[in-house]
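Quick illustration, no need to memorize.
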Amino acid sequence: MKMLIAISVLVMSISISACGGVMKQYKKENVEILSVQQLSSGSTEILYQPTLETMHYCPGANHRQDGGREKVVFVRCDINEKCPVDVVAEKISQGQWKIVIPSKQDSIDLVFSDGEVRL
């Protein structure tokens, strides 16, 4: 029993240290997709606006392949942390950001804590 408790504590410690805390995701309603554009390079540019918050920000997105589709997750990070991301967001204007995903638009799914949206 002591070994099980020790393993549980170790696993929790490792998951918490990944980004100074648990990596958070946005809900669908908290990220407005302003535009999606296919670039001549074959990449996809996504212009978006996350809900402005005082204790969190969006440093960019993580992406992975799953079932032949590119899954993109906008990272929600505490303001006092630096969360690692696969694609760093570029600030376009106040509250508006841009990421470029190296996949075609028709193979991208945006993944949120409350579901997915196919582009």
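Residues 12 and 51 are 29 Å apart (CA to CA).
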